[in-house]
């Protein structure tokens, strides 16, 4: 270690379990040392890996589809709530709007601004969805083509693509994209249980906001939600306790081994009640939620620190909750150097008090200003 190394003391959640000791780092973790603990420590601060959010539409009053500097405002807001890396997520929109948004995301991926989360790439949530299951997406759904996806990939790294597999031609495309090494998620879909099983067999990797905007579970027609519960290794879920009932969250936790959490956050995150934009849609923040004028849930105001607290409130121990907001999303994207506290990994580090309130956030070793968080 050198003179620039930062040292923190506390209860460190490592890949091998809890250690009471110290962690030394600059931009990368250099050393972790201390005494192993058999269970969650009974006193002192917690030191956890930074949160990884794979579904972020906005925050701080800005929406990713605004392009320009919006992605930087969004990544700064979420860094103040412990998100150290994220996927900027698009909405269903005409091609020229997607090009502008992805262009801005691509530029953000090339260099992280101080005080911000690392933008890893884009989650393309639409336009390749079922027009009968738009949720809060604008009505610009189209059938996918490999040619258009290749064109969109030229603007930003497409880390995730949400697709409704039941649309004509999409099942073959799921297979093709998966063979090319791309992560395809099933979402905004009216597909059957059988469609879900077939999509997974053809390489689909997960499900977009499990239970929301998909055919629901019934014991005689298990739907896409049933396919996820019966067969998925990974799926994302919004744990704001509005999108999914706590009982359904517990069901998913028992059924899906690597269920991980996302915010699906909007421009309203970190902002007072009022009107905001979600792509082309006007949304209303009130009573802790975000809705369209007709009452449809339209993303969330959730931040990942609150997601962690919500999981613990449902009965998860802190180590398991951390897996579902940090390690599993990193694993899903194949990133072994993030989402865990281990020597040689990025110094994406959180310090939390006994109430799980953030005391410090480090993104690649940079300490983030938590004022107004």
Automatic annotation (TrEMBL):
Pfam families assigned to the protein according to its UniProt record, in alphabetical order: Amidohydro_1 (PF01979)
As recorded in UniProt, its EC number(s) are 3.5.1.25
Q: Which cofactors?
A: a divalent metal cation
Please, one GO biological process term?
N-acetylglucosamine catabolic process
Quote one Gene Ontology molecular function term: N-acetylglucosamine-6-phosphate deacetylase activity
Q: What class of enzyme is it?
A: hydrolase
Cofactor binding: number and manner: Binds 1 divalent metal cation per subunit.
Positions binding substrate in this chain are: 136, 212-213, 220, 243, 297-299
Residues in domain Amidohydrolase-related?
46-365
Q: Which Gene3D superfamilies match?
A: Metal-dependent hydrolases, Urease, subunit C, domain 1
The record's InterPro entries line, in alphabetical order, gives: Amidohydro-rel, GlcNAc_6-P_deAcase, Metal-dep_hydrolase_composite, Metal_Hydrolase
Binding positions (Zn(2+)):
125, 188, 209
Name of the protein in its database record: N-acetylglucosamine-6-phosphate deacetylase
To which species is this protein native?
A: Collimonas fungivorans (strain Ter331)
